[in-house]
Design a protein that fits this description.
globular, alpha/beta
C-alpha cells in the first residue's frame, strides 16, 4: 500500500495474529474511533488478513516473526517516512474515549521525555502496568504511579507505548530472538541504560482484554515451549539475571508437571531452556 498523504507525526503500529484488523479491540477503540490513517499493520497470521482500509502500510509475515521483528520493521518505515513517534500496540487493548487527546497534550507539555504510556487494568480491577518487576516478572498491583516515573520504580508494557523513534533506535530496538514472552522487559532493560524515566498518563486507563483463555493441552504445551525459548534467548548481563530467569521459568515448569502429571514440561525445560536444543517454535 502507498502511504496516506498528510501524515501526522505519530505512526500507530499494531501487531495482529489470528485476528482481522477490523475485529481488533485496539483498532475499534483507538484507530477507528479517532479516524487514524497513519497505521502500520504487522500481521503474524499464517494466512493474510489483508484489508482495504486506508492505512499507511500492511506487512504480512507468514513466519510469525513476533513482536520484536514487527516493531523493528515499523521503526524502519517510520524513519523512511519521517515520523517522530511510534505508538506500539497489540490487538487486545481497550482504549477509553479521549485517549488520543491525552497523548497529544503530553507530547506538547511533557519535557525531556521520550516515552509516554497509559495505565493498564485487567478484568479483576488490578493494574498490570506500569508495575515494578522482580526476577523478570511483574506482579499485579492495586495502584500504579502516574506522571514522571523512574524505571527503577516501575516498567510499562508495550501496548499503548508512545515512544520517540530516535530513542527507540538509540536503545537498539527490540531483541527479535526474544520474540514474545519477556520482550517488553528485555527492551526496557536496554532502554533504561540510556533514559532514566518515562511518563504515565494520569487520565488514560486501558483495559487489557486478552483474546482468549486457552484450554487445549496441546496448544498450552506449544505455548509453553515458546515461553522457554524466549527465556533462553534473553540476553543476561549478570549471573543474577540468569538466576532470576532460572527460578522464574522453573516455577511454571513444576506447576504444569504436577497439574498434568506429565514429565514433558520438565523435558522441555531441560532441552529448550537449559540446553537450547530447539528451533523457533511457531
Amino acid at each position: 500500500m502507498d502511504a496516506i498523504n498528510n501524515r501526522g507525526e505519530i505512526l500507530f503500529v499494531i501487531v495482529i495474529c489470528g485476528c482481522k484488523i477490523e475485529e481488533s479491540i485496539t483498532f475499534k477503540t483507538l484507530i477507528d474511533r479517532e479516524h487514524i490513517h497513519d497505521v502500520f499493520v504487522y500481521d503474524n497470521t499464517a494466512t493474510t488478513q489483508y484489508t482495504d482500509l486506508q492505512i499507511a502500510e500492511y506487512v504480512h509475515d507468514t513466519s510469525n516473526g513476533g513482536l520484536g521483528k514487527a516493531y523493528n520493521t515499523a521503526c524502519k518505515y517510520a524513519v523512511k517516512n519521517d515520523y517522530k513517534w511510534m505508538m506500539l500496540l497489540d490487538q487486545d487493548t481497550y482504549f477509553p474515549k479521549g485517549a488520543l487527546s491525552e497523548y497529544t497534550k503530553a507530547i506538547k507539555s511533557v519535557r525531556s521525555i521520550n516515552m509516554i504510556v497509559p495505565q493498564h487494568k485487567i478484568q479483576n480491577g488490578k493494574f498490570m502496568s506500569p508495575t515494578h518487576y522482580f526476577m523478570k516478572t511483574s506482579k499485579l498491583q492495586d495502584k500504579v504511579p502516574t506522571g514522571y516515573v523512574h524505571f527503577n520504580d516501575a516498567s510499562p508494557i508495550n501496548s499503548g507505548m508512545l515512544i520517540s523513534v530516535e530513542s527507540f533506535i538509540k536503545a537498539g530496538g527490540y531483541e527479535e530472538s526474544v520474540w514474545l514472552d519477556f520482550s517488553d522487559i528485555c527492551f526496557i532493560e536496554k532502554y533504561k541504560k540510556i533514559y532514566d524515566q518515562f511518563y504515565v498518563l494520569p487520565q488514560v486507563v486501558c483495559a487489557q482484554t486478552f483474546s482468549s483463555i486457552e484450554t487445549d493441552k496441546k496448544k498450552i504445551y506449544k505455548r509453553f515451549r515458546i515461553y522457554l525459548e524466549c527465556a533462553r534467548n534473553f540476553p543476561c548481563d549478570t549471573i543474577l539475571d540468569r538466576i532470576s530467569l532460572n527460578i522464574t521459568t522453573l516455577r511454571p515448569t513444576l506447576s504444569r508437571t504436577i497439574k498434568e502429571r506429565s514429565f514433558r514440561y520438565i523435558n522441555a525445560y531441560w532441552n529448550i531452556y537449559i540446553l537450547g536444543k530447539n528451533k523457533k517454535n511457531h
